[in-house]
């Protein structure tokens, strides 16, 4: 091999060596750049994951808060519905109470008018203090001294007593067909000789006699009537004087208040 050839081979080898060195250097630089990019990408991926986890936590918290607020809104809406229903119930109840008040007021005015008519028809007996008419809390009581209705110690009603009972039934009792009527018999504390054995028997017999007359002759519905005898145990005056005893010997016709719905419900 000639010297010239050797130089040529050496030159080519040198060029190849330079190329190899350049390639190695380039690949090393490229590898370092790729490694840096991979590290940056990995760091970015970690940062993204952390950010994603943070956002997910915030989303979960926000969803929880939103659900809590929705629950409160639902409770509030339910409360509003309840309040509205209560308001409607109160309005209905108030209207019912108002209607009942008007009914009671009309009843009171009517009762007063009937009482005036009754008092007018029995004016003479009232002036003679043989009849007393009182009213308390819607309960009207006609208090009749026994001598108007009965002979002493007797339970049979006298003609004048029948006239009085007819007026009471016509002017008042039969105009309020929904009212209960209680007839009570009372005596003084004196024993007596008569057709019944004692004050219990006399007071009860007289109350029953009045009830039967009202039913059979004055057209008062029997289901409205009741009779009770109290003997001398419910006096309205002293039994130490003649006048007091006379007042205690009596028949009381009590017209009960109308039955109404319980407004406290």
> In this structure, how is the largest beta sheet organized?
5 strands, mixed
Any idea of the CATH class of the domain at 106-255? Alpha Beta
What's the CATH architecture of the domain at 106-255? 2-Layer Sandwich
Q: How many beta-strand segments?
A: 5
Strand content: 5-15%
> What is the H/E order?
HHEEHHEHEHE
CATH topology of the domain at 106-255: 60s Ribosomal Protein L30, Chain: A
Helix segment tally: 6
Give an overview of the whole structure.
The protein is of the alpha+beta class and 265 residues long. The protein has a domain of 150 residues: 2-Layer Sandwich (60s Ribosomal Protein L30, Chain: A). Helix content is 63%, strand content 11%. The chain contains 6 helices and 5 strands. A 5-stranded mixed sheet has the order 1-2-5-3-4.
Explain the layout of strands and helices.
Blueprint: H1 3-121, H2 123-127, E1 131-136, E2 139-145, H3 146-149, H4 159-171, E3 181-186, H5 199-216, E4 225-229, H6 242-248, E5 250-255
Parallel strand pairs: 3-4
Antiparallel strand pairs: 1-2, 2-5, 3-5
Concise overview:
The chain is α+β, with helices and mostly antiparallel strands. It has six helices and five strands, in the order ααββααβαβαβ.
Which features characterize this protein?
single chain; alpha+beta; 60s Ribosomal Protein L30, Chain: A; five-stranded mixed sheet; 6 helices; rod-shaped; disordered C terminus
